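sorry for the late reply, my laptop died twice this morning and i had to redo everyting from scratch. anyway the thing you sent over, i finally got around to it. pasting the sequence first so we're on the same page, its 82 residues, then the predicted structure underneath. double check i copied it right bc i was rushing
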Amino acid sequence: MRWQEFEKMEELCFKKCISDIVTPSLKAAEKSCLDRCAYKFKEALDFGENSIRYIKYKIFETNMAVHNQLIMQNPEENHQPK
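ok and here's the structure:
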């Protein structure tokens, strides 16, 4: 997790889970809430990163298919990058 993401998670989870900032220690319910909040935040980030990785792979796969199709249609031309 990058630093910016950690700061965002900290901010969101604090707002959601901490109701009493006067008491110096966390209540059991606050600890549980923070644990669930951090877990869900991490899961959401992982899901987003995996989705982006999959989309990039599909774009690459499509580009390769188009490239190969062009080579099959024009085998006499050199399709190597310059």
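The two ends are 38 Å apart (CA to CA).
thats about all i looked at so far, will dig more tmrw
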